[in-house]
Amino acid sequence: MSKISMKNLFRGSLRTKQTVVGIISFILFVSVISFVAYQVTENSVVVNANGKEEEYSTHANTVGDLLKEQGIAIKKYDKVTPSLNTEIVDGLTIDWEQAKEVTISVDGSQSKVWTTEKKVKNILAEADIDVTKHDKVSHALDSEVGKTGQIDIQKAFQLTLVDGKEERQVWSTSTTVANFLKQQGIQLNEFDRVENKMEKKIAPGDKIKVVRVEKVTDVVEEPVDFAVETKSDSSLPKGTKKVVTQGQKGKVARTFEVTKENGRVVDKRLKSEEVIQQPKTKVVAVGNKVITAAVSRGSKPSASSSASSNAGGKEFYVTATAYTANCAGCSGVTATGIALKNGMKVIAVDPKVIPLGSKVWVEGYGNAIAGDKGGAIKGNKIDVFIGSKKQAKNWGRKKVRVKILK
């Protein structure tokens, strides 16, 4: 081969290499320009995921595209701000809050909710559950649920508390009677009692009754009646009584244990007694002397008898009325035991003026025996016995002269 051919061949090969190098250089240039242009046109975005921030550079068009591009799966109840359809711009901040499941138990009835709220009160508001100041909630309303993911609520209800004499309406949650009293600050003393069973669960409308029991010692001084002793006395007319010794009541101190319920006495028991003063026995003499008299009923004194009647003894004037044995409730027997229906003349007297058993002359009546007495016969008064009601009525009331014969 000639030198000219070799030279031309070499030059052609060299031109080919230069062309390839140029093409590759152009491609590299374009790639670098494109890469730089791609990098320059990326948007810088901050994603705040549950309080943790991450910065991303992206060509994604929307918030949803970006999160999908980063492998972040958004669930139904998650909260993304701004919305998933928001267009990406440089410097955009995206807040993503993951929802978590919370169990809410109301008086044992459970429900589950998904929420992005953290505070108890916000979760309950979102679940449309109202709580009052009387309800019992497992967490403070301003606190966070935390890892437990459960809120327990006991709804309060009204019932009646009777504490001694005081009755009032109170709020409580479902619990036992014992715990309820503890919640209400009710202190039971030694003898107090609760009329409800302590282990019983309370319910709306219940009445819890506390009976306040008090036991006190009461000392009472009381009189003691005296005894009455009777003695037979032959010097007194039969049936006549005379007090020999006046009686006097004694005194005893009795100690009682008094039980009160809500201030009212329900029991009183004698514990002991002590005699402070002994009673003094009353002694009464009862006459047993029998007096007989032979005075004819209705007889009028003769002149000689009248004269002898006026012969001696105490003489004075009295007011005289009449009585009869034929009345309702009358026994027909005098205080000295004389049977009036035997025809004897008898007068009722005041024993302090005319001694019982005395023989007495009465003006207009004759000789009689002082054998009776009466509650209305006091002082210078006598009551003459007349068998007929009509005659007794006719006697009326008059002033007469009497003379004690014996």
UniProtKB/TrEMBL annotation:
Keywords: Membrane, Signal, Transmembrane, Transmembrane helix. The keyword Phosphoprotein does not apply. The chain crosses the membrane at residues 20-40. One of its GO terms (molecular function) is hydrolase activity, hydrolyzing O-glycosyl compounds. Pfam families: 3D, DUF348, G5. InterPro entries: 3D_dom (IPR010611), DUF348 (IPR007137), G5_dom (IPR011098), Resuscitation_pf_RpfB (IPR051933), RlpA-like_sf (IPR036908). One of its GO terms (cellular component) is outer membrane. This is DUF348 domain-containing protein. It comes from Ureibacillus yapensis.
